Amino acid sequence: MTWSAKQYVAFEDERTRPVRDLLLALPDIEARTAMDLGCGPGNSTEFLAARFPGAAVCGLDSSADMIAAAARRLPDVQFALGDIDTWDDPGPYDVILANAVLQWVPDHSTLLPSLVGRLAAGGGLAIQMPDNLDVPAHRLMREIAAAGPWAPALAEASKNRTPIAGADRYYELLRPLCSRVDVWRTTYYHALPGGAGAIVEWFKGSGLRPFLEPLDAPTRAAYLERYTAAVAAAYPALPDGSVLLPFPRLFMAAIRGAD
After folding, report:
1. Distance between CA atoms of residues 74 and 70, nearest Å
2. Strands 178-193 and 56-61: what pairing?
3. What is the mean pLDDT of residues 48-52?
C-alpha cells in the first residue's frame, strides 16, 4: 500500500494521544538508543525523543511519503525506509516503540520475541495497536467491499490487516522474556466535527487504504459514497453536528529482564 502523510496527520492530535499514554507507561529508562518502528510522519518519533531526551532516536517506515514528512519535521533524527518484517538490525536498543503499526505485520508470535531480543537488559518495548476490526466502521468496509461491483477487486483487501490476539496471548508471549509486562485496553471517544464525512476522512488515512487503492477513480468514488451513507447510519450526528468515534486500542509496555 501507499500512504499519505498529509491524510494521516489530518487527525494528528487524536492519533498522537495514544502514543503519549503508551510511552508514559514506561519507567524512566536511561535510554541511549531508541527506535520508532512504523514512525509515520514523525509525530510518534517526536514524543519518543521528548520522553527520552538522552537517546539517539531513529525511525523506520515502509512509506517514502511518511519518511519524507518525518525528516522534514525532525531533521536531526535518522530515518530509514524499510519493512518491519524484514528489519534485521540486532540492536541492542534501550527503547523500541511500535505505535499503531503491528496490526499490518503478520506472525506476532515470532515478531514480539524478536523485538524483545533486540533490547538491552532493562530496555523497554512499547506497542499500541488499534483493536477495532469489529467496530461498525471496519465491519462496513468489508460488507460493502463484498456487496458491490468492486467485489472481485477487493477480495483480498481485508487480509492486509493482521487480526490481533487477546491481551492474555500477548502477555504469555512477553512474560517469559521480560521482568515486567503491562497490557491494557483503552477506548478513546473522539468527537469529530463534520459528521460521517469526518469518520470517512479518518479512515482514509489508515484502515480504508486497502479498500481504495485497488479501485479506479470512478469506482472508488462509488464505493466511498455507499460507505459514507452506511457510516452516517451507524454513527448518528450529535446536536452540534459532530460525531463521536469510539476507537479501542490495545497497549503493551514491557521491560526486558537481565540475561
Report:
1. 6
2. unpaired
3. 97
Lookup: cell for 89: 538490525
Please count the residues of the chain: 259
Phi, psi of 243 (to 5 degrees): -135, 145
d(CA 211, CA 258): 44
User: Which residues are CB-neighbours of 24 under 8 A, at least 6 positions away?
Assistant: 51
Place of cell 477487486: 153
* pLDDT tens by residue, 74-109: 999 999 999 999 999 999 999 999 999 999 999 999
Please, which pLDDT band fits residue 3 given cuts at 50, 70 and 90? low
How confident is the prediction for the chain on average, in pLDDT? 93
pLDDT band at 6; cut points 50, 70, 90: low
Distance, C-alpha 129 to centroid of its chain: 5
Indicate the SS3 state at residue 139: helix
Nearest to 125 by CA among 171, 74, 181: 181
Cβ neighbours for 90, distance < 8 A, ≥ 6 positions apart: 118
pTM of the model: 0.91
φ/ψ of 21, rounded to 5, equals: -60, -40
Cell of 204: 482514509
Tell which residue, 225, 245, 223, has the closest CA to residue 235: 245
